[in-house]
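**Polypeptide and fold**
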Amino acid sequence: MILYNVTVNIDSDVEVEWLDWMRSVHIPNVMATGLFFDHKIFRLLSEEEASTYSIQYFSKTLDNLNSYFEKYAPELVKEHLDKYKDKHVAFRTVLESII
């Protein structure tokens, strides 16, 4: 199993709107690619001015994830960047389950 993790630090003034958009638009669009079988959203517990979230997408294979990166990610990432420009910082990691 492959975990594609997107960590997003979002400004507090758009946090509620962003979280609603993620739940109702962005994540459904990612899941509609058919390349992930599950997802989760976690909020980091910290006392910073901006909130940090971990959005996790689960893929059965690395090939599926690579297909997502090639076919769908550029447009979906651009949409996020355009909508929340200067209001967030994001970084991505890919992990493989070994158990």
Q: What stands out?
A: The mean pLDDT is 95. The chain has one domain: 2-96. The longest helix spans residues 15-31. The CA atoms of residues 20 and 26 lie 9 Å apart.
